[in-house]
């Protein structure tokens, strides 16, 4: 394996593993953990355009529960591969893929909660991004989950060849997208598999009972 390749994922692996899943209620309820919050506060979750979608009280230990809006404002355009894959990639990693994302039916519109910010009182103390769960030794697999809203039952599909770039290092890889979404809120799961000189990504719908965890990053200013 290229000795530099693990640098693509090392930051996420060392950042901390997510807590064990607990059941997620049906309907528009969700929950999980914020990893390494400085104190109890409020998490504000947003879509790709930075528009606030939902907020939740977070305990000092990082646990949160939230009610997701039943009818959020949706982007006018269909989702892109970057909307789905981008938040799950290691920070600073770019992906260039050949092909497009297919949506069945094509008129389906999605909203992916891709990040957010953390408040203590009225002060923003940091940002939030999907938190990783890392497993494996010989081949590292990093899993992240995201809330996604679909305005109708839909199936997403894509199978592509990609190039991943980070810090001057470029490696080949593949991307498979194959979730089946119900109308309303769903949870997407992205698995990044680090093999010999490759990085493969697989986007599916998460198993029943999955939670969505977020990594807290302090503000740098």
Overview in brief:
The chain is 6% helix and 51% strand. With 221 residues, it is mainly beta.
Q: Which helices and strands appear, and what pairs or packs with what?
A:
Elements: H1 7-15, E1 29-35, E2 41-46, E3 52-58, E4 63-67, H2 81-85, E5 94-97, E6 102-104, E7 110-112, E8 115-120, E9 123-130, E10 133-135, E11 140-150, E12 154-166, E13 169-177, E14 180-181, E15 184-195, E16 198-205, E17 214-218
Parallel strand pairs: 1-17, 13-16
Antiparallel strand pairs: 1-4, 2-3, 2-8, 5-12, 6-12, 7-11, 8-9, 9-17, 10-11, 11-15, 12-13, 12-14, 15-16
Enumerate the spans where pLDDT stays under 50 for 5 or more consecutive residues: 1-6, 9-27
Largest sheet: 10 strands, mixed
How many angstroms separate the termini? 37 Å
* Series of H and E elements: HEEEEHEEEEEEEEEEEEE
Strand content: over 45%
Beta-strand segment tally: 17
**Helical fraction:** under 10%
Label this structure with key terms.
221 residues; mainly beta; ten-stranded mixed beta sheet; seven-stranded mixed beta sheet; 2 helices; 17 strands; 51% strand; globular; disordered N terminus
What does this molecule look like?
Keywords: Signal. It comes from Deinococcus indicus. This is Lipoprotein. With about 220 residues, the chain is mainly beta. It has one domain (about 5-220). About 5% of the residues lie in helices and about 50% in strands. The chain contains 2 helices and 17 strands. The strands form 2 sheets. Strands 5, 6, 7, 10, 11, 12, 13, 14, 15 and 16 form a 10-stranded mixed β-sheet that branches. A hairpin with a 5-residue loop joins strand 2 (about 40-45) and strand 3 (about 50-60). The chain is globular. Mean pLDDT is about 85; it is low at about 1-5 and about 10-25.
